[in-house]
Design brief:
With 286 residues, this protein is an all-alpha fold. 77% of the residues lie in helices and 0% in strands. It has a domain at 71-157 and 229-280.
């Protein structure tokens, strides 16, 4: 859907321009792209450390791939949680230790590719279960501990959003800088005649256009898309939080998973009867 949106933005802009008699080639002034792109890159480097820039690139790749947690992924998560909790209830919490210490070798975790292939998800669940298995924390303290971890994750995930918003907010001004530089070139070439001056003025105005276009047509919407993806990730982690904290407080495996199910919104939430039927039909975990 992201690429569809980008195509709509470009098609509407160029289509309207061409309908009014414009020629797209008139918008291609390499000097303006160099000024705007170079300054935007410089802003990125000046304002953020390397790990934030790297994270921003990763986030952009992620939203371009269109990956987000759908109903099937949440169903896998709920089934995994149920298996883990059921094993802990039947065989004792110590039986979970092998799964937590080596999740990539766990007979339960590895059954669910949508979970095991995301290291952050695996780490969060294991970190949540570890103090329960070790008995180093009271059950009613676990939720607060996981909330602190989620807050840290949310702050880190929003750093690329803030960076892109900074660039988006700066681009209209950067476009003016490019336009002013173009006008300076125009004044220096005023003796070359009206035709030459007209070309240079058009190039200068293109700088203003590009700054505004990239800011409001691409960069700020991209930041919003990444923020939406972050919220989706947070929802997944909070589903784990609700289930693990409920299990730690003594809820039965099925009830702990039900609490997690109810924390989901309607777009990804499986039905209660549907989920219960699937869970009760699963073979016992080992």
């Amino acid at each position: 859907m992201l690429l569809v949106g980008v195509l709509i933005v470009f098609a509407a802009t160029l289509g309207g321009f061409m309908y009014a008699g414009g020629q797209p080639i008139l918008l291609l002034h390499l000097s303006e792209f160099i000024v705007i792109g170079g300054i935007a890159l410089g802003i990125m480097v000046i304002s953020s450390p390397g790990h934030v820039i790297k994270s921003t690139v990763t986030k952009i790749k992620g939203v371009m791939s269109g990956g987000h947690s759908g109903k099937e992924e949440y169903m896998d998560l709920l089934k995994l949680l149920y298996e883990i909790f059921l094993l802990g209830r039947r065989s004792g919490l110590i039986a979970l230790e092998a799964h937590i210490l080596e999740p990539d070798k766990s007979t339960i975790f590895t059954k669910y590719g949508s979970f095991i292939h995301h290291s952050e998800r695996v780490e969060f669940l294991c970190n949540g279960l570890r103090p329960v298995v070790d008995g180093k924390i009271k059950p009613d303290q676990l939720e607060a501990l996981l909330e602190v971890e989620l807050d840290a994750k949310a702050n880190e995930a929003d750093e690329p959003v803030h960076l892109l918003q900074l660039i988006g907010d700066s681009l209209p001004g950067v476009g003016i800088v490019a336009a002013v530089l173009g006008i300076i070139n125009t004044m220096a070439a005023i003796s070359e005649g009206p035709e030459k001056v007209g070309e240079k003025v058009a190039a200068a105005l293109t700088g203003t256009f590009l700054g505004v276009f990239f800011a409001y047509g691409l960069i700020n919407p991209l930041a919003a898309r990444i923020k939406h993806g972050n919220a989706n990730d947070d929802k997944y982690f909070r589903c784990i939080l609700q289930a693990v904290s409920g299990f730690a407080k003594g809820l039965a495996p099925l009830m702990a998973v039900e609490v997690a199910r109810r924390s989901l919104d309607s777009t990804v939430q499986p039905g209660a009867d549907e989920l219960e039927g699937i869970l009760k039909g699963m073979p016992p975990a080992k």
